[in-house]
Write a structure and sequence with these properties.
With about 450 residues, the chain is α+β, with helices and mostly antiparallel strands. About 30% of the residues lie in helices and about 25% in strands. The two termini are about 30 Å apart. The structure holds aspartyl-adenosine-5'-monophosphate.
């Protein structure tokens, strides 16, 4: 028999149970992180979204009926009414002496994954049981940092006159002309899931000047690596009356501020993930290397040959990451490997584009955009794309489109790095990969 919620409501979260409350009655609710039955003494570690508190049941001090009832299992959902007491040996120096407990839901005796914190179950198994897995302290730390990053980004950009936008995720034709699109049925027509907010953010920079969006994008890449997923979460930024150099400055200041905020507000999470010493507020400006310089370095240092105009291989990036261990920019990529909307440099072989790297990992790409309609049509054609398919986008460039520039930052990749994770899937509540569509 399970108890009903009835008129019980939480009076506090575990984090709010402070020494000032000693002697007072509180109602807490959450899950049993740990349960120890020592005969005449039982300890419950009750966890909620913020942390945990110890509930102590001593035979004789509480009613026999309650002592008997408190036979609990890992992750039972319970509520506890009780008095706050100081107890040096308890975590946080406080314990709760219960007067009543409600068992709101039970769990099987054997849970599918380890919830004791003693071992970490295998990732796929954890992902199969994700809502349970997310209650682990490790995941609480990861998602506290993820929440902090999103909050800090919003605050930073709002303070700098950026407007938050939201743009369609169902689109009629390819955004970037790539092949990595998921087709869907849109009533009786074919449509696609968007691969990027690119074209819409550009359009809206012609209205609100400085815009950003934090949203999912869909990449039908069959890449089974520890840094690729099919549903990504990106920060898209676009700035009118600006070029690549303005964007480089905003982006490095944003990275600097977000990491400062993490250090200030998430030290417990960082400690839990063993990232306190590794999370260093980076100095700005970040070093800037041109694509040609990077190619030279790769060739001279690692004797790896990359043809001019080719993308940098994973092997080369890995080696580069041993050499350049901080945040840095790679700018002026060859025009031939950049999308149609990227502006060329003075020397048209090169583009006004950049990637932000953290060691070997690419976190961001961006650049100055083409804002002249005729040039944009020519750029589409040079990439083998049909301007007719981009008719509605091109029309916007008849209406006084300002020069603009921007970037897209992969939030999941950044969280993976900031939390020191081995696999990007750990940074996402419900990751989507070529092999995973549930839960
Ligand atoms: P890009 O395609 O480089 O640029 O994407 C931007 C950033 O998103 C992340 N990312 C991914 N993360 C995980 N799994 C994937 N499959 C994946 N694909 C991309 C990376 C990458 O740097 N429209 C441009 C941005 C711009 O120019 O504003 C774009 O989408 O961290």
């Amino acid at each position: 028999m399970l108890d009903e919620l009835g008129d019980w409501r939480k009076t506090h979260y575990t984090k709010d149970v402070s020494p000032e409350l000693v002697g007072q009655e509180v109602i807490l609710g959450g899950w049993v992180r740990n349960y120890r039955d020592l005969g005449g003494l039982k300890f419950i570690n009750l966890q909620d979204k913020y942390g945990e508190r110890q509930i102590t049941l001593k035979k004789g001090d509480i009613s026999d009926e309650l002592f008997e009832k408190a036979k609990l299992g890992y992750q039972y959902c319970i509520m506890v009414k009780g008095k706050v007491k100081t107890f040096k040996k308890a975590p946080g120096g406080i314990e709760i002496i219960p007067s009543d407990i409600k068992i709101l839901n039970k769990t099987p005796e054997k849970l599918p994954i380890d919830m004791t914190g003693e071992t970490i179950s295998e990732l796929d198994l954890r992902l199969n049981n994700r809502p349970l897995d997310l209650r682990s302290q490790r995941n609480q730390a990861i998602f506290d940092i993820r929440g902090q990053v999103l909050n800090s980004i919003r605050k930073f950009l709002t303070e700098r006159d950026f407007t938050e936008i939201t743009t369609p995720k169902i689109i009629g034709s390819a955004t970037e002309g790539g092949t990595e699109l998921f087709p869907i049925m849109y009533f009786d027509k074919e449509a696609f899931l968007t691969q990027s907010a690119q074209l819409y953010k550009e359009q809206l920079s012609g209205v609100y000047e400085r815009v950003y969006e934090i949203s999912p994008a869909f990449r039908a890449e069959k890449s089974r690596t520890r840094r690729h997923v099919c549903e990504i979460f990106t920060l898209d930024v676009e700035m009118a009356f600006s070029n690549m150099y303005d964007v480089l400055t905003v982006l490095e200041e944003l990275v600097h501020k977000v990491i400062k905020d993490i250090r200030e507000n998430q030290i417990t999470a960082l400690r839990f993930l063993n990232m306190e010493n590794k999370t260093i507020i980076p100095e700005i400006p970040f070093p800037r290397y041109k694509y040609d310089e990077i190619l030279e370095l790769i060739e001279n240092k690692f004797s790896l040959n990359i043809e001019w105009g080719e993308d940098i291989s994973t092997e080369a990036y890995r080696k580069l990451g041993n050499e350049l261990t901080e945040y840095y920019y790679i700018t002026h990529w060859p025009m031939i490997i950049k999308p149609f909307y990227i502006m060329h440099s003075k020397n048209p072989k090169y583009s006004e584009s950049f990637d932000l790297q953290m060691g070997w990992l690419e976190l961001t790409s961006g650049g100055s955009r083409v804002h002249n309609k005729d040039h944009l049509i020519a750029a589409l054609e040079s990439k083998g794309l049909n301007p007719i398919s981009f008719k509605s986008h091109l029309k916007v460039f008849d209406f006084g489109m300002p020069p603009h520039a921007g970037f897209g930052l992969g939030i999941d990749r950044w969280i993976t790095f900031l939390c020191g994770l081995d696999d990007i899937r750990e940074s996402i509540f419900y990751p989507r990969t070529p092999d995973r569509l549930t839960p």
